[in-house]
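Anyone? Bumping this.
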Amino acid sequence: MIVILKPNTSEPQVEAFSKRMEALGFKTHLSRGENTTIVGLIGDTSRLDPEKLKSEELVSDVKRVSEPYKKANRKFHTHDTVIDVRGRKFGGGFFQVIAGPCSIESAGQMELVSECVKKSGAGLLRGGAFKPRTSPYSFQGLENEGLRLLLDAGQKTGQPVVTEIMDAADIRLFEDVDIIQVGARNMQNFRLLKILGQQDKPVLLKRGLANTIEELLMSAEYIMSEGNEQVILCERGIRTFEPSTRNTLDISAVPVLKKLTHLPVIVDPSHACGVSWMVLPLSKAAIAAGADGLMVEVHNNPSQALSDGAQSLTPQAFDELMRSLRPYIELERKTIWSERQ
Amino acid sequence: MIVILKPNTSEPQVEAFSKRMEALGFKTHLSRGENTTIVGLIGDTSRLDPEKLKSEELVSDVKRVSEPYKKANRKFHTHDTVIDVRGRKFGGGFFQVIAGPCSIESAGQMELVSECVKKSGAGLLRGGAFKPRTSPYSFQGLENEGLRLLLDAGQKTGQPVVTEIMDAADIRLFEDVDIIQVGARNMQNFRLLKILGQQDKPVLLKRGLANTIEELLMSAEYIMSEGNEQVILCERGIRTFEPSTRNTLDISAVPVLKKLTHLPVIVDPSHACGVSWMVLPLSKAAIAAGADGLMVEVHNNPSQALSDGAQSLTPQAFDELMRSLRPYIELERKTIWSERQ
Amino acid sequence: MIVILKPNTSEPQVEAFSKRMEALGFKTHLSRGENTTIVGLIGDTSRLDPEKLKSEELVSDVKRVSEPYKKANRKFHTHDTVIDVRGRKFGGGFFQVIAGPCSIESAGQMELVSECVKKSGAGLLRGGAFKPRTSPYSFQGLENEGLRLLLDAGQKTGQPVVTEIMDAADIRLFEDVDIIQVGARNMQNFRLLKILGQQDKPVLLKRGLANTIEELLMSAEYIMSEGNEQVILCERGIRTFEPSTRNTLDISAVPVLKKLTHLPVIVDPSHACGVSWMVLPLSKAAIAAGADGLMVEVHNNPSQALSDGAQSLTPQAFDELMRSLRPYIELERKTIWSERQ
Amino acid sequence: MIVILKPNTSEPQVEAFSKRMEALGFKTHLSRGENTTIVGLIGDTSRLDPEKLKSEELVSDVKRVSEPYKKANRKFHTHDTVIDVRGRKFGGGFFQVIAGPCSIESAGQMELVSECVKKSGAGLLRGGAFKPRTSPYSFQGLENEGLRLLLDAGQKTGQPVVTEIMDAADIRLFEDVDIIQVGARNMQNFRLLKILGQQDKPVLLKRGLANTIEELLMSAEYIMSEGNEQVILCERGIRTFEPSTRNTLDISAVPVLKKLTHLPVIVDPSHACGVSWMVLPLSKAAIAAGADGLMVEVHNNPSQALSDGAQSLTPQAFDELMRSLRPYIELERKTIWSERQ
């Protein structure tokens, strides 16, 4: 960590500051410029709060040199983590597609969609039982009943299931769920992250609408630091000034994350753009940028969907999507799950 | 709600669409342009999801005409709501200052700060017991013990207290707290909002870093729709591209909110800018823009603070701040709480 | 265009408003809701300023239904425009790569780079003679001398050249340039756009850092409305809160633009990310998202570059890039220029 | 400037790098951490491009310690610059209001508005002759004729005039203009800035929609480095995700700029919000935050305005605004120009 002192800090003040830092267990290196003295702090600075240092009277600015995350850091774990969910693998050359409706609506719907997306090549079934909705007057999901419909459908077709948790208090309800999803709005619900860190179950962590890549990794670190290292990261668009898409898919986040962390990185093109016709080009772009998987909304009857219909594909459209994506996945020399394996 | 149909929608399609909408209980009005037909839906559209409509094959775009919030809407409640917290009033011409440290650290600290800020004119004491921190390795607050220290200090000085809840499961711990704060990262933790809506206690709702003013009002609506109408809104800066301040204080949010809602609106200048020297100019600006109160970080020893020291004022600096602010509050013809009242 | 009147506008006021609009040559359609009356304006509203209408006392909001651009609009020109620059074609199934250094430095450099990038498959040579630099103390380009070096190098290798104009007054200097580039900072330099609209020469128009897709199309419209319809659009990253890349490449802009306009759309991955190692994944993503070409920085000695070295590839790295990209271009069934054609 | 080398850079590589930097005229200081070596460069680094350094193979990151602007920097010029425009002073305790229509429309209009705003306390008259408009089909201003009408009106009422230049080629037309305005879209039109730097006339420099405060200061530096030190900075809102205001007024920019530079700083509330009812609260906030002046749109008949009517005040509303603002200006102990002086 680099501490830049204010201009005109006196020599005795610099020395006193250095001694205080050394008392905290850091080695210090001084670099004196014409106007500015810089103090380098050497040691484990991940527990040191840059904001606290900035409030010191002598301090002009503080800059981190090393990343504040450890367990998620590729520097200390160079090989790709492969997360295996009952045979469906994410990362390390394995590509995985999660598909299903935004909201779970009925047993018939879930079975139909599960059957269809499996045939088309989706390795896992998704569906929302607890729905985070901006308006209290919007449909909030079938909740417990929805979870049961999802698990039943998954069992019938042999598909592992992914669904979102909205509150740490619900954790017991998710015992049979294969991957627990943390939605964008909960990316910094730290209590929830800690509880998930105590489970022995993969977590799908979505990036918040206004969260940096480093913050996403710090949220993964929350889960990992509690003992659960099975975290799948998901880019799903950030909030910008551009109105023509619901969010702006930050495609660069894919290569940046793959460089910084060993965890698998997937992309949710449906939520990023908000309209079904853009799912194909964004999915192709995600694969080409290095993503380890996709999460795609599929609904048997999008115009009757109880939420987010505009961005859902029909099963037929999803089948065509998968056909179109295969050559891109092959070009990346990645292995996609297939029923025939 | 206005539904814009795609160009070249045929007359029978338009009619079929209108009939479907009428079956849902809306009156419809058609407006045919050269290329475009527009369907106006008349009735209570707050339960209708624009996204769902957008997924209809015929639909090109959907635009709301009326606001999706009701209880928070000034249209249906023209007088300012005044929230009275044991004599400290927010809104309707009353101006209130909440002050205290970001993190609660010790009994001595809390008593000292409480005493000082009360003398200087702060009506309420704040302090963080449960701290949302980006890093799992940072100090997370004294939690239950911190809550006790805050309540004790408040009791000694007679100050009502404000503190942040991070998880709905903790609600019982907050029984004696006077105002429960929802932090920016939890603004869309809908489960938490619903639980708070079932309490008989004011809620201080902070705007999320990337949330629109309408989303803030919808989150207030979550609380209000459960029965608790005592919501204080707080602007605390949004995330933008500008690096010279931690966040960008959206000062326009103050007049916009005062126009759209009857709820009190306060400003947190400390978190918005992240540095103590800017608290004065931003506080003055907030008052001048029409805010009903301020939330200011005060720490007995900012450079030793366990979190967010850089933005904390000393009790002396806070006293000077309050002296500087009084003429601005008077110019707005607002009444500020005073011990001598 | 839809005009939403304020609640409680009286019937005579509505009628008077409608008559005024009809006097301006529009047909009107009224739609009366419970609280709101909506006036649909039918006719050529592209010359009508929504802002002006919004200032009318009765008006609550104004929403456009049709796009404000015409010549750039795919609705009125369904086939892809193909721009042919001395045999190098952009759009309509043709894929083109423009490569070269950010700044022109010497004759030797330009010849070497031109030779190399041509061999690797770049159809055109780029190089900056006039450099827009944030600091007046930074190198501003070789200017006229630089232009000459670029033209000489292009002539020697037979490569058409692309270079940026910074001021309308320089237009005569660009007579022999094949494509004139408008940089991101000049995207709304309307005087410059008009002058370029009077040339018979393709224009490469880069999206501004904070400009919407619609504004980019309106800037293209400025050029086209003066008579020059040879406009190539370029997405090069927008400004967001994310610090890990210089800008955020808005990959969704590619399919959105391809849907809205018939003009070719290319991507500049080098400026979007600011670091050379990300050029490959972002280039692949751009191709997969539907781009008609790329603009890539190549420098014979990046660490000695007078500007933007961090994002430049060496000629060797560029050659590898092109080899890696070919299968992606083929998968899109696009034709890339080749020396052997 | 601080150069952070990549982990595992060898000792001979560090030495070779340091020698190269010393050959460029800098002193170097090395600070060796556990994983990282940091090289401090001492000397005039304002001519050194951080981007170029970042492209060096050994370099991981580069951080500036001192600001890249000199002439605009308060460090080297501690007293406020006062800009005196025929008796109307900006900065150093003087507060100035510039008022007038967005677009100049007729002689009658300009004389009426000039007369009215002068009586109400505006020191200068503004009006747009050359209008930067997003659409080529919108009214582009009366251009030369408009300039003449503005100058005539100013002469009749004795008001100095402010108007926007869009192209360096027009500079001769602005000979009699008192303050030349650079619009937000031209903030980084560097050629224009240089030409203005060669004039002996104050320049009003507006911040670009997506430009940082540092970039605004670097654009001021462009003008100042050519010899013209009479620059007035103007905050007018930045582009964010919030849709309820046209732009987001960055009120923090006022105190930040006042700290970093000695130049006067004014605020344009009309463009920031885009609606007339918000001009009052934002103007008060701007004064309270420390602004040295305001630029306000006033139109004799806003609903008939040829551009930006929605944000214009009537002369009556402007008169009330000025009455409301005076006590705030007095509270800041600033002197506002008055006809009776």
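Late reply, but here is one note on the structure posted above: The mean pLDDT of chain A is 92.
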